[in-house]
Design brief:
40% of the residues lie in helices and 13% in strands. It is α/β, with parallel strands linked by helices. Keywords: NADP, Oxidoreductase.
């Protein structure tokens, strides 16, 4: 399985396991443990998903059963910064650690910029956590170029990640170009558009050509763009399939054809309009 090197030297798997919209419970804990058993080493959750406790149970079960060591995992969570102060952000990190049952996170993100500049104080709290050695890396999510420009003016640590909605219908060229210039790794959430991408004729044609699933075509597209991707599935066979994207490559023409699907279609909120307070 491929990996990338973040701007602080930390290695991160190119394909991880996402748990957005999966409710708390035994099924999720078991799914996380199964994903780790199948080879996933990156697990992505968030405060607002309200499933950190189950994710943590799955991680700890995998460790206890000898499937993996904590040091081999890359665990991400995100702070839901709905008007949080600096101090409240520090408390939110402690809360996530407690729910996960872990001593540290590998990556902690500001989940949304919001429609004001509160994210600067929130990110400064993340800087404090990082400088204290309590998290291995920090970053942001859903930030556009102007958010990043403002953040970099007001803070001292360049985010390692900007996790954004990215797929062939929303390729976000301006954001990706700016992130590349600044050394910020792009990560895709909802890479399969909640499954709707799998019905695209072009993607199905490519799946037939390469004898892969439509999901594998999309995830390979992400990987070839150098974008970290975190598909979600509760099905063990699909967990295996989603990791099997490193034994083939799309041509430059096929990548361009997929890029040409770009029409600005979102399956999530627009960061310019989303007020999460």
């Amino acid at each position: 399985m491929g990996s990338i090197t973040l701007n602080n030297g930390l290695e991160m798997p190119l394909v991880g396991y996402g748990v957005f919209r999966v409710p708390e419970g035994d099924d999720l804990a078991e799914a996380v443990k199964t994903a780790i058993a199948k080879g996933y080493r990156s697990i992505d959750t968030a405060q607002v998903y309200r499933n950190e406790e189950s994710v943590g149970r799955g991680i700890r079960a995998a460790i206890d059963e000898g499937l993996v060591t904590r040091e081999e995992l890359f665990v991400t969570s995100k702070v839901w910064n709905d008007g949080l102060s600096y101090e409240e952000t520090l408390t939110a990190y402690d809360s996530s650690l407690e729910k996960l049952g872990l001593d540290y996170l590998d990556l902690y993100l500001v989940h949304w910029p919001g429609i004001d500049t509160n994210y600067v104080d929130v990110y400064k709290a993340l800087e404090k956590i990082y400088q204290d050695g309590r998290v291995r890396s920090i970053g942001v999510s859903n930030f556009h170029v102007h958010h990043l420009e403002n953040l970099l003016k007001e803070t001292s640590i360049i985010p390692v990640i900007n996790q954004i909605e990215f797929h062939p219908h929303l390729i976000q060229e301006e954001v990706r170009a700016y992130c590349k210039e600044k050394g910020v790794q792009v990560e895709a959430w909802s890479p399969l558009m909640n499954g709707s991408l799998l019905e695209e004729a072009l993607i199905q044609q490519l799946a037939t050509k390469y004898r892969k699933t439509p999901a594998q075509i999309v995830l390979r597209y992400d990987v070839q763009h150098g974008v970290v991707t975190i598909p979600k599935t509760m099905t063990p066979t699909r967990m295996t399939e989603n990791l099997a994207v490193f034994d083939f490559a799309l041509t430059e023409e096929e990548m361009a054809q997929l890029d040409a699907l770009n029409d600005g279609l979102r399956c999530g909120p627009d960061p310019e309009k989303f007020n999460f307070k």
